[in-house]
C-alpha cells in the first residue's frame, strides 16, 4: 500500500500495479480496495496500463476529514493523478462514474470512461424521493447504519425489499454497515441527476474523449441514463456490453476500455 495526501491533509491510500500509461479507477458506493469490482478490473488492465486503485475518503485505509464536499473528493483524485505523473486516463463505475465526471471538469484527465452512473432520466423507475438525502443522513446521525444501507438499497438503487431483506442476513452486510457513513457522499454526487427528468448538459467542461458503457442485461432505467449521458457530453461515444449487468465482469469490460484508451 502507498499513500498520498489531499489538499486538506487527508491521507488517501492507493495501490499501483502494472506498466504503461497511467489509469485511475474510481469506485462506486461502499466499495474500496479489497471489496470492489475494480480489483479484478485492475488485474485485467495491468498488462497495458499502470493502474491506480484507491480507497475513497472514509473507506478502507484512507482517512476522512470533514466537512464533506464533492470538491474534496476531486482534490483526492488530483493528488493521486499527481502521484501518477501529472496526467492520467480515468475510469469510474456507478456513483464513482459521477465523481469521475466531476473530476474531468478540471483535472488533467486525457480520456474518460464511465460504467453505468445511476442517473434516473425517465419514468422507467420511480424517481429518488426529494427528501432521501435528509432521511439518509438522519439515520446515520441516529446511529443506525443498517437503516441507512437499507434505504440506499431500496430507494437509491431501486432493489426490492425482499431482496434487501435477504441481503441483511448475509455476512457482507456488516461490511456495508461499516462504510455506511460515506453514503451521503455518493448521494451528493448523483442526486441532482435522479429526478426522472432528461439530463441537462451539466458537464460542459468535459470535452475530452469519453466512453459511456452499460450492460445489456441492466435495467432499462439505468441503460437509458447512460445513453442520455452520451448525448449531452461534447465528445462521447456509447457502447453496450451484451449479457452484462451492473455487476460487470472485468473480462468483458477490460478489452473495451483498452481499445478506447489506446486508440
Could you explain how this protein is built, in words?
This protein is an alpha/beta fold and 263 residues long. 40% of the residues lie in helices and 18% in strands. An 8-stranded mixed sheet has the order 1-2-4-3-5-6-7-8, with helices on both faces. Helix 1 crosses helix 10 (250-262) and helix 2 (70-83) crosses helix 3. The mean pLDDT is 96.
What descriptors fit this protein?
263 residues, alpha/beta, eight-stranded mixed sheet, 18% strand, globular
Topology:
Blueprint: E1 2-5, E2 11-18, E3 22-26, H1 37-45, E4 50-54, H2 70-83, E5 88-93, H3 95-104, E6 109-115, H4 132-141, H5 145-157, H6 161-167, H7 173-179, H8 183-190, E7 210-215, H9 220-232, E8 236-241, H10 250-262
Parallel strand pairs: 3-4, 3-5, 5-6, 6-7, 7-8
Antiparallel strand pairs: 1-2, 2-4
| Count of discrete alpha- or pi-helical segments spanning 4 or more residues | 10
Helix content: 25-40%
List low-pLDDT spans. Answer: none
The largest beta-sheet arranges its strands as 1-2-4-3-5-6-7-8
Summing up helix and strand content along with how strands pair, one would put the structural category as: alpha/beta
Shape: globular
Taking the sheet with the most strands, its summary is: 8 strands, mixed
How many DSSP E strands?
Answer: 8
Strand content: 15-25%
Task: Report Rg.
Answer: 17 Å
Which H/E pattern describes the elements? EEEHEHEHEHHHHHEHEH
Report the average pLDDT across residues.
96
Q: Could you tell me how far the N terminus lies from the C terminus, measured between alpha carbons in angstroms?
A: 31 Å
Amino acid at each position: 500500500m502507498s499513500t498520498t495526501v489531499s489538499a486538506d491533509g487527508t491521507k488517501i491510500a492507493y495501490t499501483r500495479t502494472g506498466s504503461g500509461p497511467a489509469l485511475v479507477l474510481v469506485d462506486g458506493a461502499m466499495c474500496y480496495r479489497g471489496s470492489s469490482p475494480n480489483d479484478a478490473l485492475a488485474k485485467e488492465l495491468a498488462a497495458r496500463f499502470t493502474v491506480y486503485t484507491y480507497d475513497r475518503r472514509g473507506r478502507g485505509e484512507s482517512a476522512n476529514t470533514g466537512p464533506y464536499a464533492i470538491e474534496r473528493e476531486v482534490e483526492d483524485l488530483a493528488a493521486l493523478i499527481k502521484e501518477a505523473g501529472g496526467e492520467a486516463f480515468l475510469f469510474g463505475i456507478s456513483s464513482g462514474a459521477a465523481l469521475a465526471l466531476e473530476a474531468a471538469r478540471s483535472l488533467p484527465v486525457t480520456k474518460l470512461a464511465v460504467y453505468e452512473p445511476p442517473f434516473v432520466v425517465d419514468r422507467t423507475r420511480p424517481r429518488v424521493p426529494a427528501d432521501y438525502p435528509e432521511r439518509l443522513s438522519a439515520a446515520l446521525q441516529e446511529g443506525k447504519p443498517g437503516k441507512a444501507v437499507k434505504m440506499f438499497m431500496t430507494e437509491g438503487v431501486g432493489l426490492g425489499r425482499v431482496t434487501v431483506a435477504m441481503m441483511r442476513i448475509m455476512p457482507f452486510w456488516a461490511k456495508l454497515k461499516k462504510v455506511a457513513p460515506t453514503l451521503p457522499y455518493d448521494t451528493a454526487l448523483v442526486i441532482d441527476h435522479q429526478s426522472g427528468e432528461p439530463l441537462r448538459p451539466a458537464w460542459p467542461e468535459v470535452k475530452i474523449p469519453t466512453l459511456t458503457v452499460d450492460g445489456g442485461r441492466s435495467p432499462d432505467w439505468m441503460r437509458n441514463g447512460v445513453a442520455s449521458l452520451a448525448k449531452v457530453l461534447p465528445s462521447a461515444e456509447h457502447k453496450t456490453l451484451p449479457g452484462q449487468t451492473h455487476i460487470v465482469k472485468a473480462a468483458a469490460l477490460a478489452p473495451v476500455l483498452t481499445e478506447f484508451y489506446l486508440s
